[in-house]
Amino acid sequence: MISKAGLGSRTQARSWIHARRVSVNGRVVENPDEWIDFEKDRILFDGKPLEVREKIYILLHKPVGYITTFKDPEGRPTVYDLIREVNTFVSPVGRLDLETSGLLILTNDTQFAERMTNPDHKVAKTYLVECADPLSDAALDALRAGVELSDGPTRPALVRRVEGLVEIVISEGRNRQVRRMIEAVGSQVVALVRPQIGTVGIEGLESGRWRHLTERELEKIR
Ligand code: URA
Predict the structure, then answer these.
(1) N or C: which end of the chain has fewer CB within 10 A?
(2) Is 97 a catalytic residue?
(3) Is 71 exposed, middle or buried (0-12, 13-18, 19+ CB in 10 A)?
(4) Among 194, 196, 202, residue to substitute to test ligand 1 (most atoms within 8 Å of Cβ)
(5) Phi, psi of 85, rounded to the nearest 5 degrees
(6) Which protein residues are within 6 Å of ligand 1, measured from CB?
(7) What are phi and psi of 113, to 5 degrees?
(8) What is the CB-side half-sphere exposure of residue 104 using CA atoms within 13 A?
């Protein structure tokens, strides 16, 4: 509930609970897994009622070399280094690999995030791929139809050539999916960019910069 209220990451919330900074109905809780009823229970953090923060939706143009988690044990830069001005805790909607650049949405709206990442809702994610070896027409057809990966076959994808690159539109978001799809047809990804999620595109947003999603974009994506 603390992380859903936008105060911090789940890991931070757990540490605050262990540090006895949280009480429920007047009793300090020490177990982060204790079940809470947000409607009925009175939760205090540092003695103050937990307020649900306003929902925010951030669009970040993630550069290569940034990881999508809050903290990296290896100390590499994270996407949070790029959104320091945002003073509400937001979580990435899906992930982009360290070496992938492009559009990343971050939000404190967990319901929205769930809907966006649930493959049943078929939100289209568009990727542009530079491959190590040129892909044949047969390879493109195989990607369109679905290829066999270690965690099962991929769903049909939209695939076309765009100025020497391959554009792939998928509605799933499995771990390193595009890289694994390209490997499944005998090549390797040299560079991977995600220019678009659903109806929202990255154009006009410089690498490393962020902005709020507009009301209109939010409406369209919903
Ligand atoms: N597919 C990948 O392989 N990597 C990403 O970052 C996103 C999709």
Answers:
(1) C
(2) yes
(3) exposed
(4) 194
(5) -70, -15
(6) 96-97, 100, 176-179, 192
(7) -60, -40
(8) 32
Q: Return the exposure string of 151-189: e unless at least 16 CB atoms fall within 10 Å of the residue's CB, then b.
A: eeebeebebeeeeebbbbebbebeeebbbbbbebbebeb
Give the containing element (helix H, strand E) for 16. helix 10-18
| Beta strand 22-24 pairing with 210-212 | unpaired
How many distinct structural domains can be found in the chain? 3
Distance 102 CA to ligand 1 centre (A): 10
Identify residue 178 by its one-letter amino acid code. Answer: V
- What CATH number should be reported for the domain holding residue 181? 3.30.70.1560
Widest distance between CA atoms in the chain: 66
Distances (CA, A) of 177 to 63, 120, 173: 19, 17, 7
Write the DSSP string, 167-202: EEEES---TTHHHHHHHHTT--EEEEEEEEETTEE-
Residues 168 and 181: their CA atoms lie apart, in Å, by 10
CATH number, position 77: 3.30.70.580
pLDDT in tens, 36-75: 887 788 899 999 888 767 899 999 999 999 999 988 899 9
Tens-digit pLDDT profile for residues 151-169 = 999 999 999 999 999 999 9
DSSP class of 81: G
